[in-house]
Structures
1.
Amino acid sequence: MSLVIENLSAAVDGKPILNGITLAIPAGEIHAVMGPNGSGKSTLSYVLAGRDGYEVTGGIATFEGHDILAMEPEERAAAGLFLAFQYPVELPGVGNALFLRTALNAIRKHRGEPELDAMQFLKVARERMRTLNMTDEMLRRGVNVGFSGGEKKRNEVLQMALLQPRLAILDETDSGLDIDALKIVADGVNALRGPNFSALVITHYQRLLNYIVPDRVHVLLDGRIATSGGPELAQRLEAEGYATIQAEAA
Amino acid sequence: MTAVRHTGAEGFLQRFEGLRARLPGRRLPWLEALREDAARAFRAQGLPTRRVEAWKYTDLRPLGEAGFEEALSSIDGGQALPAAHGGGARAVLVDGRFRADLSALDGLPYAAGSVAAALPGLEGRIGAVAPAAALPMVALNAMLFEDGLLLTVPAGVPGGVLDLLSLASGGARPEAFHPRHLIRLEAGASLTLIETAMGPEHDGTTLHNPIYEIEVAEGATLVHARLQQEGRQGFHLSAVHARVAAGGTYDNFTLVAGARLTRNEIHIALTGPGASAHMNGAQLLAGGQHADTTTYLDHAAPGCASRQTYKTVLAGRSRGVFQGKILVRQAAQKTDGYQMNQALLLSPDAEMNSKPQLEIYADDVKCSHGATVGEIDHGQLFYLRSRGVPEAQARSLLIQAFLQEAVEGVTDETARAALGAAVSGWWEREALA
Amino acid sequence: MPAVTETLETVQSVTDSGYKWGFETDIEMEFAPKGLNEDIVRFISAKKNEPAWLLEWRLKAYALWQKMEEPTWAAVKYPPIDYQDAYYYAAPVQKAKPKSLDEVDPELLRTYAKLGIPLKEQAILAGVEGAGDSPSDSGRMPIAVDAVFDSVSVATSYKERLAKEGIIFCAISEAVQEYPDLVRQYLGTVVPQGDNFYAALNSAVFTDGSFVYIPKGVRCPMELSTYFRINAKSTGQFERTLIIAEEGSHVSYLEGCTAPMRDENQLHAAVVELVALDDATIKYSTVQNWYPGDAEGRGGIYNFVTKRAQCRGRRSKVSWTQVETGSAITWKYPSCVLLGDDSVGEFYSVAITNNWQQADTGTKMIHVGKRTSSTIVSKGISAGQGQNTYRGLVRVAPTASGARNFTQCDSLLIGDRCGAHTVPYIENRCMTAKVEHEATTSRIAEDQLFYCRQRGLTQEDAVGLIVNGFCREVLKELPMEFAVEAQKLLQISLEGSVG
């Protein structure tokens, strides 16, 4: 098993958001979590990545058998967990190249691999960037500063491609993307597909799942998994909306 | 009575000694003590010189040299008053004295009237928001005030629009008056107060020294527009002290178009969570005018917001000053403060001095200020002319647009319209004059 | 928020070990008697074997100083300084000039080694003749160094090589002997003796400092630098630096400074005067790392410094860059008087205050000449209980038609017990001039920290990265070699202060 979540509950500012989520992703599988606004989708991704202010009130989450809830965010990253942010953060004055290299080297160091110098890094980064249709200029700019919505998401995918995580959580990565950018993101995820890579794709719409075909689909309602199924569940949601499921769950 | 002319701080102190037996409320021990304290503070500070940091750019020597006397009100009830901005509710003061005969305050859902008439009941209210010793002009006012507008809007009452007309009658000799206005909005109340200060009709020298003590309670909203269009021989020294409680809003606009020397201080304390302040202003200066707007915004509670936009246009040999400080106390986390002050120099002999200031002791804040001083943008001017607009008109348009940015910050429509009218056409009038 | 708090705690726990230059050199010293009076002024002048005019100049400054009052307008607080309770002259006892490394006092050798000055330069700094004159074999641009140890310059490197270009780079006391006319022509013409309290004090008792003269049309082939070290107890350091760039010349100069960790406060009151003539460029960089005091606010240097440049010539340019990480109190306003038409002034500053440090720093740009332009970029970082004030003046005279100024002041707060203040003065008397000022205050956002940590960076590295990003516009102005050093210094200062 890659990711195991059992009866996970969490609160923000004392307000319960997740109310006992249970879900397991075997290694090599991609699962989608779908749900309407306010169902707890982003909270789930932040809890798994370890953001401050998201208080776990019950349950467990393990990644490859390790209790990730006890780890610092950077330890989770080093263990191979990657969160693609819904709103990638801007870091003014911090060059994108410097940031990517620092992050890559932090993870390589943890894996016992040699750190890359500036030249080695550039070579690796440029290769990845070509496939993502990104220009060198984006390396020189501050992290995400002045990037368009699509550029920010591509920058996330670039980081994912460089850091080679074993579990990627995509938090509504499709929001605000046009169809071309959506394909680029999907290609980035699909390229990593393999027996040692799993992903949790969090989305409101079925659209992204046409390009990243999930093994399982879970529907999140009021902080709980209301129902699960195969890819056809996403199609059904697209056709019927969340109301039917809500009615069934109630 | 033989008129003895005194100058400087000493002149005001002697006037106080001479008048004290005749000042309103002279039999009230607390008021007597308050005036004494004020006199002591004023004697200690005197009229500030430019060596005092807060007065670095404004020289009060001409004030000290003028030698003011008590104002002799000479406007009678028959006189035509300028049209009101609001729905007709109007308070009128002549030479700092409340005039019931000229005012129209009947049938209002709140109480408005004379400070002098209500003095016995005002212990603890006068000086509560504007401590006498804090500023020299407040001390000066505390020594010598005779009257002012007393206004209380009860909880939950929408007060609508009230005009406040402040007239100077003027005379052959320099005259000074020092009204003290007490304005209180109780929880959830609202009011738009539009003040117009005018006069004297002839070229008399006057000193208008109004002090405002303003309390905005929880959730109340006060829009306070001040249009100062006094005669070019006038001196205008004012201080607004306002305290805004949780969820309350105080919106101040200070327009300076008149007087020879103006200093307006605006001190606002946001004392409860979620309070907000809008502070805007315009200084329209020409000839030898000198105007100084000094603001002091105290963010004392968390989650408060403030917005300031101040504009100055300077023609002739005029000099403009803007000093604006934002203080964010340690408790005032999540403060959102913004201030912009800009000046347009329209003449090679004009001068602008600007000192914005941030003093910040809380870390989770968003505070910024900006300042620019320059002339009219040549590119914009050219663009307009290339579209066929004559240069003079193009200039006027650009000046108008520049000032309008400050006016647009005013949250009440009636006040905004009154201010828009007051700033429009200023340049044409000056260019013709 | 909890992340920041945690970082703060982590960093505070290592604060005491943060200052790596705090050792003391045990070496035989010569002192003037404690205190300050006319006799001490005469003593210093005699020690330096100065001409009569300079003694008179000092005595006049002393007389002015006695009538002056310590300035109180800066936003800094400290107990009254007893000016009689300090030594105004302290110097290592000089033996005959050593001929090889073996003859140099091993304590001085160790001092420079510990301060991280390479061996070759180390030999020069300790006064070994000849060791510094061979070109550096590392292939890097050589850096000429003047080392000032307490009250005296102990050595200056690359003098002969520079002399071939007509460049004078030496201790100012030496310049008084060797080039008295040049010194007399310029000394005190930019910062007069009575300019302010500390400048007057410095004029009366200055002991050493650097003198630089770049002749017409010469581009100085290497970086010049002065390394200031306070070592002795209860002494003040009063250095004076004078740089003259003749027509069409170009020079880049850097100063660095450190001091031992002590419980007492020591005064450093320097004066720096720069003169740039037609088409000359002076780039002056400072990495100020005086001992900042401990985590409880004990000890540290009072850094009360007057630095001013006159752009006298047309198209002349002076650029100040400062990275201020040290000192208990910093009071300095490197300024430019832009007299020549089309002259340019720049001020780039990073100031960090951590623990109980206080900084009141900024610049003055005085526009007199036509089309003069100035740029101010100030980055203030406050942590711990630190108080950080930007104070700056932009004044445009009626003569400065077409003048331009742009000012950007940004403050970063780390923790809720520090303060960040901005006090700009803008005085414009010229219609065609344009002055623009912007200031912002912010903190390191929680989402920025989380984003970095999600990518595998530790909290400390994330803070360092974000702060360096915040300072980037300033750091890129430093000469290459020092930019790297300054970045490390920022990180170290933050370790001890920010968390």
2.
Amino acid sequence: MFENNTIFKYDVENLEWTLPCQFQYEPVFGAIQNAIIELGYEPLRANVFGAPATIWSGGRKPTIYRELSNKELEKRFEYITSLNGIPTFTFSCTVVEKDHLYDKYANRILDVAFDFGARFIIFSDMLRDYIKKRNPNAHTVSSVVKAICHFQGPDRIEDPIPELETNYYNKLLKEYDTVVVRPEYSKSVLVKNPYILDDLSRIEVMINQLCVSSCVNAPLHSKTLEKMRVKPKRMDEFICPKHKMPLHLQYRTNSSHTTQDTMALLKAGIRNLKLQGRGEPVANFTTILALSSQIFRFDGANNLFVRSLLKEKLDIELEHFEKLIKDCE
Amino acid sequence: MADESIYIYENENIIWALPGLFQYEAVLGTFQDYCKMLGFKPFNVDFYGAPATIWNGGRKPVIYDKLTPKEISKVFEYVKSNNATPVLTFNNTEITNESLDDEYANLILDIALEYNAKFMVYSDLLRDYIKNKKQDAIVIASVIKPVVYFQGQDRIDEPTIEKESEFYNKLLKEYDIVALRAEYSKFALVNNTSLIDDISRVQVLINQTCLQNCAYAVEHIKFNEKFNTSQELNYDFICPKKTLSANIRYMNNAAHTQKEIQTLIDAGVRNLKLKGRGGSCEPMLLLRIFQTLLCRTDGANYHVITSYPEAHMDMETDYFAKFIGRS
């Protein structure tokens, strides 16, 4: 019998993946972890991010608008933690006001989340302080939206000059447990000179950003999505410029990292890699492959075995998870 | 910021043998269009397969209806318009003098020769027959030849490196291209590329996922051949792989890693092959296999792969059906 090489693209100790599956498509995460276990490997160390509709939510439009019971929250978190994941909340709304801090539902989620050692991706320093006050051990992550609003768009506070952006992240490293950098920065600056940041082990790099590089509309896009954080609303006032571009331009004007870029960062000491959420929040095979293509190698035997195993596991996890949630109703 | 090339292996002289002829031609068109849409040259492809004929080998055919000369020509035209050469899998292991006279097989052969098709062949008898019809027709020694020779209970010889190298070097004198067993290319050739006299004329199967040196391979091939004349049989072939757990199957096959393939390319290999898929394989899956084994999946690439949606495949399928006059 001959051994094939590892299934993972990046075979590095203590690597943590931040994956977009919480409150959206948890079975995708379950399928990935179960496939890995079945192939005889240790499951990923993963921060599984997302949030239901709350006044603090940011990032993507929520897929769950109904108020979740504590029982259901616990079941979802148990599912994630049983698979070596950490529930991670995208509480990255840019317009959190003082009143919002006392929102009943958001605080109820927080209470349950603390019990499961959850992490919190945050824009607002005020919300960070509030969470830390409630639980000094809570792990807070400075959202990439902070850096985007600071350096992109007509209302940007500073131009994204490497020196200024480096100072910005080094300052954030003193205030947050983990700091997510803009992919434009990690791809064009950090890959070439990683040691300009004070603590690479606490920096998170988004490796599959497909937006137009340094898009001037990015802050507006975030703010438009936020308007749907509590209630669904037609998003007719924002048109993503990428959607008008032919495929070959989309391919050439983004900041997604090649394997080589990512390896250079890992070699320098980065240990947190993030995959951005999907526009279509669907737990289907395309979604699982989009995430898996960044995690697994697709050469050798992997192409067939890993893919077919993922498909098999997805079907099982979808059924299992549906039953889990149904029992909460 | 520009991203890098879509190609995993940067070599313009590589010919990719891809499955789908007389099966899923639209996959070829969709795949090559995908490369062009991204602003890259399409791949050089040998597109292989065959409809049901008495000369067929390899996989069970998908097309049993007898095709008209016009339809056959149109299929070849379509393939060539997509930067590919049609390759007929005439690699049946039981060719006789009598079967050389088969009318339908000869019809396909004559049209194929006009389109400078290539021929994947097991039988030396059929090889000679084709060469008599057209001296410069390219004939490929099918991988079934070394599988029958070196595997299974009735094998003729043991697959030692020395004997197998000798086998292929002899075939290189008789065939234009010689397909190697994946076990040989992965475990022998990668470590010593000077084993083969003319490495530019061997063909390497890069995604073989059968059990290594499977004792049932020959039985499986013979089972598939029975489908040339009958769409259904009253017994089934149970692949031993299907009874094994995922991690055992994963560890026990001869699929090549990217590093191994690059080593072979650097040594001069110019013909790489993806194995065929059964008729039950969905076209989109075949497309994704082409995309993920020939194109990079890092950076923006995977998003681009999945942005190329099913709608394009549907359009290409409709176009192909109209093109050959079967819509």
